[in-house]
Amino acid sequence: GEAGEQAAGALREHCGSPILCLFLFFNDTATTEIYTLALHDALPIYSNPATFTPVGEDVAPPTFISKGIDPCNDTTFGSAGLDNDGDGPRDSADTDCQAPVDNPPTAVISAPANGLVGETLTFDGSGSSDDGTIISYTWAFGDGGSASGMTTTYTYSTAGSYTVSLEVCDNATTSQCNTATHVVTINDITVDNPPTAVISAPASGLVGETLSFDGSGSSDDGTIISYTWAFGDGGSASGMTASYAYSTAGSYTVSLEVCDNATTSQCSTTTHTVTISDTAVDNPPTAVIAGPANGTVGDTLGFDGSGSTDDGTIVSYAWTVDGAAAGSNMTLSWQFITAGGFSVKLTVCDDAAQCDTASHSVTIREQAGDGEAMYMNDCASCHGNPSTDEPAPDGHFKVTGARTCSIQGSIYGTSVFPDGVETMRFLQGMLSNDQIQEISDYLNTFSVNGMQRYITTCSSCHGQDARGGLTDEDVRNSDAEDIEEAIHDEREMRFLDCLPDGDIHQIGQYLSPGDNDDGKDDDNDEKDEDDHEDDDHDKDDHKNDDDDKHHEPHD
Q1: Comparing C-alpha atoms, which of 514, 498, 392, 482 is closest to residue 444?
Q2: Using CA of residue 63, residue 64, residue 65, residue 68, what is the dihedral sign?
Q3: Which of 554, 440, 455 is nearest to 497 (CA)?
Q4: Which of 42, 210, 301, 494 is the most exposed place for a label (fewest CB within 10 A)?
């Protein structure tokens, strides 16, 4: 009709030539849909349906879309009925004029907040969304581990707090991505394993024999709180170890159940087979010696083995003294003719040829009243015979003129020799103070000069030449007054308080360069010796005890 002609003319005028135009076609119905598409160089300008009402010859020429015209923003053509939002003109506020918006996706993580080392955890990203399509899910677990996919699982090997991240990307022309994070705390877990029961016990035994059953080898990663035994014959016991005697021969299965301290107690059981025979148990005998621990040279001491026992019959007794056969009776009488320490042994055997041996120590002292005999028996082998001019054996010196305090210090110790002189320790307990006094009296029956007094009393500490020895103290030029003062004031010297003044005078003469003690006694030396003999005994009297007195080291 007329409207169509007008539209066609307008399109020809504005579209130009050559172009491809899709024209508008109208009919005369009351409501006509107009589909418009104007193409220029194959570029669509606009495509939307519109409804025009009414249609007729007197209707104003329809709006059309042609080259260079923006139907959403052109004021000339924007009021021809293509308004969608009801504000009058056709403009960019109309919904069909707004370009579609492509928003980025939203990442969402669904996962536990806590877990345990070694536990498999599930991480879910299915709650993520997009106005298009999510095409990738990328996971990072905070410890270097990673994964992909909408859902995944992961196991942590170390306790700690980890930040898990999920990145999702969509299918936009320029892909858009979004990341979400989630914190998971991983805790250590201790696996509480059940205990392990272990039995240690004999494989066989005899009727009536008490057998020992030991479960101490059982173990647990916590604490074993109970041990329950069943011995296979109806008998039972509890405890880590147990003892049991079977009354009937046979083979029995012993079981041990151990339970630990887990919240829900866990238990374990093991078994052990023991075979019991009818043969009676024959235990070996027990040897016992009763007898004195001390004696004196010449004493005959008695020893008694009647306290020995056996579950059968003891058929033999065999005695030895220091390894030498001494008797075969239940008792023994033995005379000791030398001083020293002795080992008395008794071996008893029963009627099943089983034996046992007991040992008993005896210390024998010298007889009192014979200083010469005691010296020759106990001391001469090291220090020589004081009655001859022969020197002492190599490494030793003569001790002529030795006083009791020097002898006691050598045997029992001083501050310089806390345990006594090594070669004299064997005399500890063998000599009483009285016997030591007798030896000293014997050694002082000989003529003794200042040099010998010094060697006997002082050389072990200060050296043979008085230049130092063990103490590094040079005592040359010391006179009697110096020596007396040292004995009184110095702890190391106090053990010499038994020395008579005559001894100190002789030693001072030897050490002092103004005195000429050539190693021979002079009249003064003899007089000093005689004058101070009683003084020597007086000073020693306070040290004499009975034979059984315990000796302490001398300071």
Answers
A1: 498
A2: negative
A3: 554
A4: 42
Q: What's 433-448 look like in SS3?
A: HHHHHHHHHHHCCCCC
What is the rounded distance in angstroms from the CA atom of residue 506 to the CA atom of residue 175? 119
192 and 222 Cβ atoms separated by less than 8 Å: yes
* Lookup: tokens for 137: 């899910």
Q: Could you give the CA distance from residue 243 to residue 114 in angstroms, rounded to a whole number?
A: 51
Distance CA 217, CA 240 (A): 9
Two tokens at 465? 């030449």
Q: Which residues contact 286 (CB under 8 A, 6 or more apart)?
A: 308, 309, 310, 348, 356
Could you tell me which residues are beta bridge partners of residue 243?
Answer: 212
Give me the sign of the Cα torsion angle 400, 405, 410, 411: positive
Q: Pairing relation of β-strands 267-277 and 250-260?
A: antiparallel
Residue the block writes with tokens 């049991």: 244
- Residue ranges, the chain, pLDDT below 70: 1-100, 190, 280-281, 368-369, 513-555
Question: Which residue type sits at 49?
Answer: P
**CB 469, CB 460: distance < 8 Å:** yes
Q: How many helices (H) and strands (E) does the chain have?
A: 11, 24
pTM of the model: 0.34
Residue 82, token pair as written in the block? 């293509």
Contact present, 276 and 202 (Cβ < 8 Å)? no
Q: What pLDDT does 532 receive?
A: 42
Q: What is the pLDDT of residue 94?
A: 56
Q: In this predicted structure, what is the pLDDT of residue 393?
A: 86
Whether the CB-CB separation of 57 and 3 falls below 8 Å is answered with: yes
Q: Are strands 134-140 and 210-214 parallel, antiparallel or unpaired?
A: unpaired
Q: Which two three-digit tokens encode residue 212?
A: 């020992």
Task: Identify each DSSP E strand in 408-480 by its residue range.
Answer: none
Measured between alpha carbons, how far is 466 from 39 in angstroms, rounded to an integer?
A: 135
